[in-house]
Amino acid sequence: MIDCPREHRRATTFLYLVLTMALVPTSASPLRAAAPDAEQSAETWSNITPEERALKRVEQDPEADAVVLLNERNGKILRKADDFVNVLDYHFRYKILTERGKRYGDVEIGAGKYSRVSNIRARTVKPDGTVVPVPADQIFEKVTFQVGDYRETAWVFHFPAVEPGAILEFRYDRHDNSLLFLDPFYFAEPEFTLRARMTQAIPEDMGYTVLCDLCPANLTPTVSSWREGKAKGQMYTMELHDLPGYKEEELMPPPRDANPRLEMVLEHWRNRAIWGLMRQNRFFIDWASVALYAWSYYQDAMKTGLSDIKPVVEGWVQGITDPQEKIKVVFRHVQRDFRYRPYVNVYGSSRSIKTMLKDKFADNEDKAVLLMTALKAIGIESYTALVSGKNGGSLNPKFFSFSQFTHTVVAVPQAGGSYQWLDPTVSYAPFGFVNWKDSGAEALLIKEGKGEMVTLPAKNELSATRYKVVVKPRKDASAAVDVEAEFIGEDAIDLREDLMPAAETARKEYLEKWLAKKRNGAHLNSYALQDLEDQDKSLRLKLSFDAPSLVTNADEIVLVRGCVLTCEESNRISRGARQYPFYVDRGWNEDESVVIQAPEGMKASEAPPSFNTKSVVATLTFSCMSQGEQSMRCSRTFVARRNRWPASEQANVRAMFDKIVEADRTKVAFSRAEETTVGGR
Asked: If you placed Cys at 436, which of 1, 122, 586, 605 could pair as Cys (CB 3.0 to 4.6 Å)?
């Protein structure tokens, strides 16, 4: 799927950047078609070159499922009535190379709360040159997030006639009201990108600091004169070619550490003022500017909201006298009572406390302001810190933009000058738990309008998943499978984030999809959750399901896979030369114990060979042991510790995964009880 999420949380600024939140009425259907009106304009597509038509494989990436012929964004800041808006035109052109590449035929475009997507146009160009457009009434709006009356939506559509050799092309417009910093443009798409281009027009009275990070040979944008109607200024243009595909997946660095990007932050705007900085003309020129801006808006929200939240907090802590226990209780309510809207952007502002109390949801900045205000209501002072989480990548200390931060946390001063760090965005973590995104992350600590760059404490929390599996083979080559699973630390938090807010029907649907990813073709029969709501305990899950692909009947022998839920079906490391380092910022610890019961009238044969393999990244052990004639137990343990390694370790890591795939294909043999047959793989 081609995912074009543009999640935006817009800052409210003095005079010219004032924004309002748009709500989708609750009567809106979960999925509705776009109206075939002026929102979709007639399109004159640029010509497809003979080279693009003839392309069948990428020499630099022979395993590529598709190739990105074009990734383009053209932007211009224009005056609209009494406001200014960045008008963006996105243009993508993919060519499908394999059957697997057909997954790019599904597209989702998210706009965000404070920007608007319109004028979506799309077409398929078949290998013979036939053009099949995507009709406007086949572009649908679906709900992606909902709490009460509030909804957020995305546009989705499916390309027709998708096949190897087809070219998929689409464009859309986005009107973006955020001018404090312009959305970073990442040049590389998920597949090898032949051409990526960005332009941005800036009015003559505005000035932006420009960062082109990881751009080859220290390239910088070209700057030329720009004029459109009465508007005039400068046009920035940057074009890159032949970029390795960047996929956000395990073992990959976050985008900022691997994908070339261009971004811009507002440095000056002649005769304009921002209340948060209490000055005009000069804006984000150092970290002190960023800190002062955020502090001003956070403090304003806290002052106006203190009276609204105080009676609520008094109810939370009623009967509690110990200050630390009060902090725990307040923190837990902010975590759990307000559904977290998971933005990975910071804009230096929040909604009002009154609105949050009414709507019962909050993004990362909302949660920090809510927690600080609640603590203030019980006489406890605290500060906020803008965090560049491990999920976001490295922070550039000389580029003074909110875009470098992923979320906000709260610092409660302790005796001796230390801080108790509280991250209310992790809704289902135990009190004091340090999640992987915060551990050792860089942050801008804000106190009384002043900022200080700090490093958050590093802590390796225990996170693990343990499966106890019983497999009962059937004569029809299927198997009945019972599972008892325990999830600890981050693994439990991640599942609770998805399961806790969901209704019972949605939970079952989620677990069905979760199981399908673990064991293709499995059919969930029943499930039971234990301690789901007690985040101080590990999360336990019992499953019963039917699996069609674990058993092979071969003459007088029945072969059963020794790995069920943690298997690697193929090597996740490409043969192509790796361009990116290996990152394990969130550790893995998986343990699977599988007891295979002998089919009726059969007995377990000799245990298959064991496996022990490791690389710089991880280790795996796999072994099977007879439990008497009636069963065989196979144990699989995979551990990857937090660390980072250069791309030069590719051969070492790929060799390990080759052995893991081989181990995970191990089969246990059962023969007729009166015979003796050697087991194998």
From this structure: 586
